[in-house]
Amino acid sequence: MTATTDHLFLRACRRQPVERTPVWMMRQAGRYLPSYREVRSRSSFLEMCRTPALACEVTLQPIDQLGFDAAILFSDILITLPAMGLEVAFPEAGPKIQAPVRTAAGIDALVVPDPEQEVGYVMEAVRQIRRALQNRVPLIGFAGAPFTMATYAVEGGGSKDYPHTKALLFGDPASAHRLLDKLARTCAVYLEAQVAAGAQAVQIFDSWAGILSPRDFREYALRHTKTVISMLRASPTFRDGGVPIIYFVNGCAPYLADYADSGADVLGVDWRIDIGTVRRGVGDKVALQGNLDPGVLYASPEEIRARVFEVLRQAGPVGHIFNLGHGVTPATNPEHVRAMVAAVHEYRHDGK
Amino acid sequence: MTATTDHLFLRACRRQPVERTPVWMMRQAGRYLPSYREVRSRSSFLEMCRTPALACEVTLQPIDQLGFDAAILFSDILITLPAMGLEVAFPEAGPKIQAPVRTAAGIDALVVPDPEQEVGYVMEAVRQIRRALQNRVPLIGFAGAPFTMATYAVEGGGSKDYPHTKALLFGDPASAHRLLDKLARTCAVYLEAQVAAGAQAVQIFDSWAGILSPRDFREYALRHTKTVISMLRASPTFRDGGVPIIYFVNGCAPYLADYADSGADVLGVDWRIDIGTVRRGVGDKVALQGNLDPGVLYASPEEIRARVFEVLRQAGPVGHIFNLGHGVTPATNPEHVRAMVAAVHEYRHDGK
Question: Residue B5: pLDDT band by 50, 70, 90 thresholds?
């Protein structure tokens, strides 16, 4: 237990002193790694998510190969949707919900699933990963935030303009809130189950909250994420484990004041805003995670190093977890990721 | 000439007093209008762009039917690419550049076209539209900003992560700047030709500049838009006509201080930030245009009215042109657009 709470990553989440800034990377267990593509060539994406041994294998690959300071469960934010009543397919072009939910009746028919019963393979993967990691680095669990889950449930997949989602939000706000509330309760019990199985931190991904105006962000995204966080804070599993909660809004620049007020311990910061600006905007009560443009990994190792140093300098020594500002892209050269990790590990805040 | 400069829209662009706030809408000549779909059912999108009578017909439809205070040329930002050396197709799924440019040699082979020679049908459309409008409302011309044009030229179409664009920017910045400079010069001569043909204001669309970090926005987007604006300001056609320049960055929230410094007369504001926040951020030296979430047009006419009033209240009486924060979506009910226009025309800033 002491070893666990002493992990660099967990200390940074709690804004405790660290000898250097920890680093992990969104989608670090992913297609940019040849060893991941090798596993993927033998199994479908869904099989990988549903087979704990495979999920465990790919979760550990970036830890073993690239030396990140935290592991993140290999899974998908949509993995809980079938158990709620929405079948999902994962073709190459992106996830597809076969019968998206767009009516009050459809929303009322959705259920809040029992995670161990319905997606127990995720918790089994968490247990296997914890054993395999042997406490080298902590394991982060995750789930989709209510609003982002709603965009998939309603739109049926990714979208450019989110017409069905916005038609629901603005045309029938009461039904929208009922849907978001079910997604919030699902998110909370699911994250609680992951922590009970051994996850040492959790990240709530709000990948699409950035399509909202500030008032709608407060009403349709933040409000329901706050419900999730309140439910987690009320859970002994969370409270007693001191499990940090990370909230990541992709495109957070317009919402800084509200974002700081989410109740999360750590705020994920995308690359479109300077992390120094976010620090000044949200104050010192939360830790920050981010925020190198994933596209910078296409640059030379020298340029990567300079850009990594710039992020570290802006973020400062306390309460910062280095990460990309969004997921690593499949076309990224793993050697360039290695250069990024090396630069974070090299940097020292005391004038280097 | 006096009648022209007295248009509400042009006065608002110049921050002169207006009796009420003018309104137009991005993509107002578009698929949400049955009369547009009727024309489109007989001609391809490209035929419509290349046939002045058809471009004129659909440009006037929203003026005649919905009472907007400005017309905007029906065309496409990519219309100049073939003349530069990049063939474009416009299938339903979105534009496709057949052979995207990704090498220094490819960039060097591109030419800055003579607009009247190569895309003279656009200028002919401008002339026909001006005649047909009979000075009822002013006509806005437009072009794609250098950075946004570069994303299409390099990526070959729309993208999620823009891997090729970022590989060029970060892997070969010198070539990226050569490409952006050619696109800037093309943009400037093209807008100058539109103004010479009769356009009374111009908008530079930077739809994808919002994918950049603040430093890269300055270096790869703003810097080259400033070149365009400097070239236009140096042109007697612009100077003597007092033609306002509108710069629209979709996702402008992270860049406010730099955005204000673009040299444009009017800044377009997307819906993800409160327009009051933008006003406080950029000060009083520029006019603002925006910024209702296009998705709000799915709400009831009562809710639309309330949201329109909120934007007008935040933006204030001076130097504001009401618009959506992005293009109207095809699924929008024209009656809801009518409710929006009516609400703008109804509102009075002196306590209503």
Answer: low
**Of A252, A232, A198, A267, which Cα lies nearest the Cα of A12?**
A267
Q: Which two tokens stand for residue B150?
A: 């570069």
Cα–Cα distance for residue pair A71/A199, rounded to 1 Å: 10
Cis before A135 (ω within 30): no
DSSP E strand boundaries for B44-144: 71-72, 88-89, 96-97, 139-144
pLDDT tens by residue, A257-310: 899 999 999 999 999 999 999 999 998 999 999 999 999 999 999 999 999 999
CATH of domain B2-346: 3.20.20.210
A&B contacts, CB < 8 Å: 100
Comparing CB atoms, the residue among B171, B210, B294 nearest residue A298 is B171
Q: Which residues in chain B have Cβ-Cβ distances shorter than 8 Å to A325?
A: 213
Contacts (Cβ under 8 Å, ≥6 apart) of A182: A84, A107, A110, A111, A112
Cα(A182)–Cα(A290) distance, integer angstroms = 30
Task: Kindly report each contact of residues A258-267 with a partner whose C-beta sits within 8 Å and lies 24 or more positions away, as own/partner.
Answer: A258/A214, A258/A217, A258/A218, A258/A222, A259/A222, A260/A285, A260/A286, A261/A222, A262/A222, A262/A225, A262/A226, A262/A229, A263/A226, A263/A229, A263/A230, A263/A233, A264/A204, A264/A225, A264/A229, A265/A13, A265/A14, A266/A13, A266/A319, A266/A321
pLDDT tens per residue, range B263-305: 999 999 999 999 999 999 998 999 999 999 999 999 999 999 9
Known catalytic residues of A?
A: 27, 31, 40, 76, 152
Torsion angle, CA of A187/A193/A199/A200, rounded to 10 degrees?
80
- Residues of chain B with Cβ-Cβ distance to A162 below 8 Å are 295
B287-292/A139-144 β-pairing: unpaired
Nearest of B202, B192, B20 to residue B116 by alpha carbon: B192
Strand pairing category for B71-72 and B139-144: parallel
Sequence-distant (6+) residues with CB within 8 A of A275 are A269, A288, A290, A291, A311, A314, A315, A320
Distance CA B202, CA B268 (A): 12
Query: Is residue B1's pLDDT more than 60?
Result: no
Task: Give me the residue label for tokens 């703003």.
Answer: B222
Interface test with B, best of A151, A271, A298 (most B CBs within 10 A): A298
Q: Which residues from B are below 8 Å from A220, CB to CB?
A: none
Among B249, B248, B238, B164, CA closest to B194: B238
B96 in A contact zone (CB under 8 Å): no
Contacts of B32-41 with C-beta under 8 Å, sequence gap 24+, read: B32/B328, B32/B329, B32/B330, B32/B331, B32/B332, B32/B333, B32/B334, B32/B337, B33/B61, B33/B62, B33/B65, B33/B334, B34/B334, B35/B61, B35/B65, B36/B61
ipTM: 0.93
Residue B317, CA distances (Å) to B7, B169, B241, B309, B323 in order: 16, 41, 25, 12, 15
Radius of gyration of chain B from its Cα atoms, rounded to whole angstroms: 19
- What is the nearest CA distance from A298 to chain B, expressed in angstroms? 5
Residue B162 annotated in active site: no
Cα B244 to Cα B254: distance, rounded to the nearest angstrom = 24
H/E element holding B268? strand B266-268
